[in-house]
Write a structure and sequence with these properties.
alpha+beta, Jelly Rolls, 2 domains, 17% helix
Length: 146
């Protein structure tokens, strides 16, 4: 006597449509996980970077250091003229109207380094370095910013 063919269905009572919908959600979740992993891995010339990412800033310039949200890990700033004081502001945003994150005042020839990790200082709209007075050379360290 020939054996009857039976369909294999999930044991939770779901029909084929619900089963396929579950598979689609699983595949979408995997895509999301892969995207998150890719965003967490930062590379430079194909080599994985570990730790923070430095953003060097040209002497005496004002401008945007980051275009997205992130965390300020620290900075190193030096007054380079040797003849005048300098004031620098770090702001959350794309220009000098963003929320103030930090103000750095330097006397002539002074340099400062500050480190905020492991927590850092969060910014939501980008990071803007504003040189109010004086001439400075700066490196700002961002956590997880490719």
């Amino acid at each position: 006597m020939p054996r009857e063919r039976t369909e294999h269905r999930p044991t939770n009572g779901a029909g084929p449509t619900q089963y396929l919908e579950g598979l689609v959600h699983t595949v979408n979740d995997l895509g999301t996980i892969v995207s998150q992993l890719r965003s967490e891995i930062s590379t430079l010339n194909g080599v994985r970077q570990l730790g923070t990412n430095p953003r060097a800033f040209a002497t005496g310039q004002t401008g945007r250091l980051s275009t997205s949200s992130g965390r300020l890990a620290g900075f190193s700033i030096r007054e380079t003229s040797g003849a005048a004081a300098a004031v620098v502001r770090l702001r959350d945003g794309s220009d000098a109207t963003g929320d103030l994150l930090s103000t750095i005042s330097l006397v002539s020839g002074e340099s400062v380094r500050d480190w905020f990790m492991p927590s850092g200082i969060s910014f939501g709209y980008g990071l803007f370095l504003e040189v109010l007075t004086g001439v400075v050379e700066a490196v700002v360290y961002l956590d997880g910013q490719p």
